[in-house]
Amino acid sequence: MDFSTTKYTEEQEAFRVVVREWMEENAPLELSVPEDGRALDTDTQQLVRKFRRKLGAKGWIAPSWPRHLGGAGLSPSMEVIIQEEFRRMKLPAIGDNRRHINTILVWGTEEQKRRWVIPALRGELLTWQNFGEPGAGADIAGINTRAKAHGDDYLINGTKAMITGRFDPDFLLTLAVTDPDRPRHYNLGVFMVDARSPGVTIGGPTLLVGSERNIYLDNVLVPGDCLIGGLYQGWEICQTILQQERGEVSFRITESGTIDSIQEYLRKERGS
Ligand SMILES: Cc1cc2nc3c(=O)[nH]c(=O)nc-3n(C[C@H](O)[C@H](O)[C@H](O)COP(=O)(O)OP(=O)(O)OC[C@H]3O[C@@H](n4cnc5c(N)ncnc54)[C@H](O)[C@@H]3O)c2cc1C
């Protein structure tokens, strides 16, 4: 009996052939991706970044998004085919969680869209979602990271935990308390923080199940025009992001697979 749930049309299968040929020609095949969640080495990161730019040039970082935003204008089923072909090639995740892009489209100024949306979809930028903290995960409104006004700019201090990423990020979409005296949920702001700013340190545990990191923000100076939305709109902006996370037709360029990597690790290390 055939239990398969997916049947593709001839046109879709023809598209798959095109995608497969392109991947075989362009994807970096000799990547060194440790099975645990360690950060990728510099050479590997460079190879993947180069590949991201090729993908971005084709609009395949967001294949079903409109072309004017940097997508390829394809149907969702074509997007799924691209994703399946990524999986087949066993490529590592290409680093960007992408949810910040929709969020900036909703809440950002035109200038912020120009700075962060188009380059992200061209494969030029990597951004991490920098929300969770050691004492505030499920209860994200309970964060302690603080953004204080400093002239027209902000100084951010705090520690973030369990932030996903194996690449050196370019930006950290950071949630911070902007006024501790305001009521909960009305006291938060969201900032695009340049990850190479003085005071940003990325460290933390190496986990078998993933690539989560701690991020330490020590008096990080963030220009005023990197605030997304209003100074107290962070909670609403979080909802946009988390809605994407839970509800989008999600195209996440695949990882070698958490389950696969755990099995591989156990086979090698434990002989089981
Ligand atoms: C693989 C992975 C990747 C992640 N990547 C990112 C990332 O890229 N960026 C980012 O910002 N964060 C990231 N996180 C953090 C993630 O957002 C938090 O882990 C998540 O919000 C849960 O928080 P916590 O782990 O602190 O658990 P806790 O908040 O400590 O919750 C533990 C348990 O207690 C329950 N609980 C908590 N509070 C209450 C309450 N008030 N009432 C009833 N039950 C409660 C929870 O439901 C849960 O079952 C990642 C986490 C994981 C595991």
Are any ligands bound, and if so which? flavin-adenine dinucleotide
How many structural domains are formed by the residues?
Answer: 2
Largest sheet: 4 strands, mixed
Order of helices and strands: HHHHHEEEEEEEEHH
Question: What features would you describe in this structure?
Answer:
- The chain is α+β, with helices and mostly antiparallel strands.
- It has two domains: 10-95 and 254-270, Butyryl-Coa Dehydrogenase, subunit A, domain 1 (Orthogonal Bundle); 99-247, Butyryl-CoA Dehydrogenase, subunit A, domain 2 (Beta Barrel), CATH 2.40.110.10.
- It has helices spanning 10-26, 42-58, 76-89, 99-107, 110-121, 234-247, 258-270; strands at residues 127-130, 146-150, 153-164, 171-177, 188-194, 200-203, 212-222, 227-228.
- The strands form two sheets. A four-stranded mixed β-sheet has the order 1-4-5-8. Strands 2-3-7-6 form a four-stranded antiparallel β-sheet, with no helix packed on it.
- A hairpin with a 2-residue loop joins strand 2 and strand 3 (153-164).
- Helix 1 crosses helix 3 (76-89) and helix 4 (99-107) crosses helix 6.
- The model has no long low-confidence stretch (mean pLDDT 87).
- Bound molecules: flavin-adenine dinucleotide (FAD).
- Flavin-adenine dinucleotide binds at residues 128-132, 137-139, 162-164, 210, 212.
Give the secondary structure arrangement, pairings included.
Layout: H1 10-26, H2 42-58, H3 76-89, H4 99-107, H5 110-121, E1 127-130, E2 146-150, E3 153-164, E4 171-177, E5 188-194, E6 200-203, E7 212-222, E8 227-228, H6 234-247, H7 258-270
Parallel strand pairs: 1-4
Antiparallel strand pairs: 2-3, 3-7, 4-5, 5-8, 6-7
Bound molecules: flavin-adenine dinucleotide.
